[in-house]
Amino acid sequence: MARVSLSGIKKNYGGVEIIKGVDIDIADGEFTVFVGPSGCGKSTLLRMIAGLEDISDGTLTIGERVVNDLPPKDRSIAMVFQSYAIFPHMTVRENLAFGLTIANAPKAEKDAKVAEAARILQMEHLLERRPSQLSGGQRQRVAIGRAIVRKPGVFLFDEPLSNLDAALRVDMRMELSKLHADLGATMIYVTHDQVEAMTLADKIVVLNAGIVQQVGSPLELYHRPANIFVAGFIGSPKMNFLKVRVEAVDATSVTVGSADIGKLVLPRANATAKVGDEVTIGMRPHHLTVGGAQDITGRVVLVERLGNETLAAVVLGSGQQIIAALPGDIDVAPGQELHLATQADRASLFLANGLAA
Amino acid sequence: MASKFTRSNRVGWSMAGPAAVLMAIFVVLPFIFAIGLSFTNQRLISPNPTQFVGLANYEQLLGVGVLTLEPERDAAGAAVRDDAGALAYPSLRSFTRNNDQYPQYDGMREWFSFDIGENRVFVLGRDIVFLKALINTVIFVLIVAPVQGGLALGLALLINQKLRGINLFRAIYFMPVVVSIVVVSLLWRFIYDGNSGLLNNLLGAATFGAFPRIDWLGNPGTALGSIIAMSIWQAVGFHMVIWLSGLQTISPTLYEAAAIEGASPWQTFRYVTWPGLRNTAVLVLIVITMQAFSLFSQIDVMTGGGPLDSTQTIVFQAVERGYGKQDISGGSTISVVLFVIVLSISFIQRWLTREKT
Q1: Chain B nearest CA to A227, separation (Å)
Q2: Contact B262 A79 (CB under 8 A)
């Protein structure tokens, strides 16, 4: 068990700054997910915590110790890799016991810890197999088991489910969630998959281009994105963005309008927007309904029926396209004209600089 | 379903065809001839018709016998000793030449002998030169295979690092490989020269003249060792490159996983690197063994088999016999024997280094 604190963490490769000053506090026992598009630096950040990459600047604290210059094994961490990184020539048992073997632990201790990890992951029957005889999910379970045997303060996961097929990913996601509840350990998890982030995390850190965009609980990020990047990244299908103009601002609301959406009064206290500003309104596809108070009118160009819902791509008068998530059995077809309304209290507003108003 | 390209045998054969035909004409066919010739008394140029002689060539080549002789005794039955106290034995020739009682020893010569009590055991061979060549070749293989393989692995591990200028070292180690073995042998003949050779001068300078000058290639005790050392140096770069390719197939995440578990450099090698090199090791060992068994050029250029047959080798004998003495059936027999030896050793090595499941 350990808290993790990153303070002013930077990483340079040659002259290029990859991580541009990251401050994150992760409480003991918290499940934190680093999420962001590929190349955003989330894996690099995790590898810096693990000690696999040098820290160019800043302070990394695990537990009560500054660990910047400690080797990985002394940082009280265990890591699970996307490619599993289990040793192909060893049995599952030998893989689980690897850390103990190289530390010359007595056999009884090895057996006890391996049995414990195998019990937690329900893989007692796999112990004598070799990795080549295991499925992808089982291999990843071995990798997680090897981490458990280390009894680390912090578990680090680097996209652990990315190599698994969709169904298995859902199962493993639930198992990880359960594992976190059982062990109560601090876990840091890197993924580009926002569904994993939303379902697993106590706290999500959204990264883009080496900068933390927002830190918060999944629902905070979903409902109150700090900027247009987070708004677009979290939620599927992606949030719809439309250019609008601020028409009126008072103490409790902001009124925006455009040819596409008409007039929309957003309840916003102390909004920083000024009348006449060009701003962006963000509307989640799931907050759009057919009919209602406003009239957002457009022509349906594409219909995707998912069974539980229907995604309709609608082109508005100005040529901007939005996606609406409509009920599964609604009667829409491409070419049809659709009148949509959004829920003004759930819409987001972004200033020209991308920050939420 | 397999694609058109993987199913099409015609394309495959037409690509492999030219090489296969050349191999058949210049490797397979001559070897089949050699097997046939080894059962005849064919000579390179001879007026006499060829006769089938069965296994006579093999008996001539491989025939060995053991003869235990008691010392000569006087009338009282005591062993006769000469002035120096050495025991006297009956003449060996009296058993191996025209002795009707011992037809199995007829034509044999002494290979080596040792004493058991007062008795002297003579190991006899029909073809002492070939037997010496066989032993020399085996010694050569037994030393070159592990030493060259081990040195090459060491170099590969050194080269397999990200350091400035490492390519220069790679080139330097590989350079002897691209130089013709004949040229290398000529150069090393100067190095090994008994009077003003580089090696003698170096050793002399390093020991302030205390080290005696040695005629490295002219001395039966040092000739084979000198050729072994030079042969190891010459081809070590080639095997280094093979090891290097093996090293680069090992996933870097395995090393990271080992680092997180706290493996020392030696443990990392033992548990990650070496198991990952298993297939490469088989390849390197078999290639070195086969190359070592075919030792010829160095001998031909540097010593011509001497001094006192101390550097005779199997292939040198095959060439010497087949072309030098124009005894093509004898040369063929040696080739077939070598083929059987190399094939058996390859099988044994494959079995020893098989993947245990």
Answers
A1: 35
A2: no
